[in-house]
Amino acid sequence: MKTQTPARTNKKQQLLDSALTLFVNQGIDATSTASIAKHAGVANGTLFHHFPSKEALVLALYKSIKQDFALQIKPFQLEANQLKQQAKQVWDQAIEWAVINADKQQFCLQVSQYHQLSSQVKAQVLAEEFGYLPLLIDFGQRHNIIANYPLQLMVDNAHGQFISSSMYLTNHPELVQDTLHREAIFEMFWKAFSL
Amino acid sequence: MKTQTPARTNKKQQLLDSALTLFVNQGIDATSTASIAKHAGVANGTLFHHFPSKEALVLALYKSIKQDFALQIKPFQLEANQLKQQAKQVWDQAIEWAVINADKQQFCLQVSQYHQLSSQVKAQVLAEEFGYLPLLIDFGQRHNIIANYPLQLMVDNAHGQFISSSMYLTNHPELVQDTLHREAIFEMFWKAFSL
DNA sequence: GTCTATAGTGCGATAGAC
DNA sequence: GTCTATCGCACTATAGAC
User: Fold this and answer.
1) What is the distance in angstroms between the Cα of A7 and the nearest Cα belonging to chain B?
2) How close does chain A come to B2, measured CA to CA in Å?
3) Residues of A in Cβ contact (< 8 Å) with B26
4) What's the pTM value of the predicted model, to 2 decimals?
5) Do residues A64 and A113 make contact, with C-beta atoms less than 8 angstroms apart?
6) Which of A69, A102, B133, B192 has CB atoms 3.0–4.6 Å from A170's, for a disulfide?
7) How confident is the model over A15-67, as pLDDT tens digits?
8) Do B153 and A185 touch (CB under 8 A)?
9) Which of A152, A132, A117, A139 is nearest to A70 (CA)?
């Protein structure tokens, strides 16, 4: 794997960083490619050298963020007698990432409602995100720890709770370190799923 | 309350209907005011007679939808010994509306990520939507039926589960009448909240 | 790879007749 | 209230020099 020269990577990364900032503050459609280039300190045409279109830029940013998130989640060797504790660690890692990277989390929500990207592409990227969760649910079901609801329904429910919980903490930064709130968040998730 | 002549109301309503259809299929930003007028069978300028701007049209549509939803939820005189059953009825009414009015529900999700409308305005409209839920939670907490988590956290969590559940059913229409799925959806919600 | 300059397009909103 | 016609602007993407 040949590493690109820093100079090359640099402007491309600056464009991605600026795009994220502006997208989150103004919305994707309301952010012009020209303003992204200006914010990144590069020329207008340079953006289209690195990304063939605005849509491609959005997709590249989306993929890089989902990859960043996936790296944050460190899977365990699942054990039945401490599954709840393991679930809490995974859950907390996910929440932690979303709160620290509130802008990235916000952008992902925007992308989910961005019609210029096909649902197919978005679903594909999203499926890779929570690949670990179905394993955990299936394991818990086989050991009679987790309720036998339909798998996809549970995955979607978990995703919904993840979004609402991380947004809640993002909107109330003073509560991020509050154990009462952090435990309440996980308890709701876990109780919904456990037998 | 003086009723407007049908003719007057008609074109305005046609514009709102066409806007909803096009917004959901193409996204709000990607839908031009001209295409809305054309789809509604009225002239371009007529749209700006009824709505001073595109933004005002979006807001009017949003408000009318939230009002429509609120009318669907019929509150109960809460009783401690049948609170779960009452919660299920309210929950099912909400899910029912969202599935039947999938386009309206979808549009509301788009609005939540629509930066042209101020967060303040959106929050105000949203607060009126689920006004009944805090009452139910508070009642359940005082009768030791519902867990003592922070109120706003529970409201947000319920909203998140409502969105993910209704989307799940919308994406799997054949399951809408399936009692197994319908009960699993409510059980996850209720278990998350109950003591 | 990066720049400047601009082509080409489509949009929101207005003006004014009926 | 509804129409036609159009203005002015901002945007994506390209062309071509360096």
Assistant:
1) 34
2) 39
3) 115
4) 0.96
5) no
6) A102
7) 999 999 999 999 999 999 999 999 999 999 999 999 999 999 999 999 999 99
8) yes
9) A132
